[in-house]
Amino acid sequence: xxxxxxVITVAYxxxxxxxxxxxxxxxxxxRSRDDAAPDTATFARRETAWLIxxxxxxxxxxxxxxxxxxxxxxxxxxxxxxxxTGVQFAWSIAPAKVKTxxxxxxxxxxxxxxxxxxxxxxxxxxxxxQVIPGKTQKVVHxxxxxxxxxxxxxxxxxxGHHDMISxxxxxxx
Length: 173
Fold this sequence. Notes:
Elements: H1 3-30, H2 40-65, E1 80-87, E2 90-94, E3 97-99, E4 103-110, E5 115-121, E6 124-131, E7 137-142, E8 147-153, E9 165-171
Parallel strand pairs: 1-4, 3-9
Antiparallel strand pairs: 1-2, 4-7, 5-6, 5-8, 8-9
């Protein structure tokens, strides 16, 4: 599992546990212990406190995970540009060879149908992007390891979808 996935999983798990504890505490605090009329002013203050706590928790979750979102990442001036075009039922990749340690900017387009551009190493998905006709999807990734990477379509695009497999060669810099 990647470092990003671990950080996001831990952040969401902490948020769920804190949210459940707060919800349980709020529920227990609103239970009436006698037959007296409920104190609506106290309940209103608790609801306001609950709202503020949840907004702060969600904001903390956003700040803890937003910097790990890869989209919009810039490849910088030393980028390698790879043009990827999806056509039923193949990928056209030019150039089909890149180097490790230098950012690769994939510019993915399609001429016919929606495709899912997915790059795999030894059966493990590294990244993916949805590609639709008339648009160019930019994905930036830096390969750390040399080898042959599989490029698969991840969106059912027709009867030959299962044949939509290409490779990308990554060599040492």
